[in-house]
Write a structure and sequence with these properties.
Elements lengths: L5 E4 L4 H12 L4 E5 L7 H4 L4 E5 L5 H9 L3 E4 L13 H16 L3 E7 L11 H13 L1 H17 L5 E7 L8 H7 L5 E4 L12 H14 L10 E4 L8
Parallel strand pairs: 1-2, 1-4, 2-3, 4-5, 5-6
Antiparallel strand pairs: 7-8
Helix pairs in contact: 1-8, 3-4, 4-6, 5-6
Protein name: NAD(P)-binding domain-containing protein
Organism: Cercophora newfieldiana
Family: Belongs to the avfA family.
Length: 240
């Protein structure tokens, strides 16, 4: 699937830097849309396969330019603070890029969500219930924002956008090269719904990055229009 440039949103955080490392390691032409490009490590910024476009996620012209040069999108954007931002920020961002994707013929997008987003296929999980309840109490704005992300994809993306919201929980791990290299081999990946065999509550950032690049390469058609949980597969050994 991935024969053109992959556009990355959220590429300056730890998980995003791991994703950039994985994409460049696998020789994908990549565009990083960043408000603060200086957060991208110099060894990545200097890679000829990486194009960096500076802009705010509210800048429609800059977003249009970035999307027009891509064939698929991976977004790791999401709330990472307890307060200080508007819950509508990320839902509004996705709402704004759907028409741009249609205009430029870009169909595929993988967008990050969390296990706070409910799915009818999830089985009851006491651990999930407790974690989501905690987030709802101590980080209400973040909770409302991520719920809004799930709703905007489910209700507004439309049939001409091939979307997948991958829901995560904890993503520990470093973003330096050594940590990424070690963590990308950390166990097999679970993809499915709460309560299914193998689901856990964490996945190392390097392993998530590897799964995302696998996903953009093969398209993960079975997850189009769906919101799978993605985690380390419980009890699995080191990947090779």
């Amino acid at each position: 699937m991935a024969k053109g440039k992959i556009l990355v949103f959220g590429g300056t955080g730890p998980a995003g830097i791991c994703l950039l490392r994985e994409l460049l390691f696998r020789e994908h032409e990549t565009i990083a849309f960043a408000r603060n490009p200086s957060k991208i490590p110099s060894e990545l910024a200097q890679n000829p396969l990486l194009e960096i476009i500076q802009g705010e996620i509210s800048d429609i012209d800059a977003l249009s330019t970035a999307i027009s040069r891509s064939t698929a999108i991976i977004s790791l954007l999401g709330p990472n603070t307890f307060s200080g931002f508007k819950p509508a920020l990320y839902p509004d961002f996705y709402r704004s890029i759907f028409p741009l994707m249609r205009t430029h013929g870009v169909r595929r997008i993988f967008a990050m969500g969390t296990l706070s987003i409910p799915d009818p296929k999830d089985a009851f999980s006491l651990a999930r219930l407790a974690l989501v309840g905690l987030v709802r109490v101590v980080a209400g704005a973040a909770y409302r924002s991520i719920i809004g992300v799930g709703e905007v994809f489910a209700k507004e993306a439309g049939e001409d956008v091939d979307w997948t919201v991958f829901r995560i929980a904890g993503i520990p791990g470093g973003s330096d090269e050594a940590s990424w290299k070690a963590d990308r081999e950390d166990g097999e990946v679970f993809e499915g719904y709460a309560g299914e065999k193998g689901w856990t509550l964490s996945q190392r950032r390097g392993a998530l990055a590897r799964w995302l690049v696998d996903a953009v390469e093969d398209g993960k058609e079975k997850w189009i229009g769906k919101m799978p949980l993605v985690s380390r597969y419980g009890g699995s050994g080191k990947r090779v």
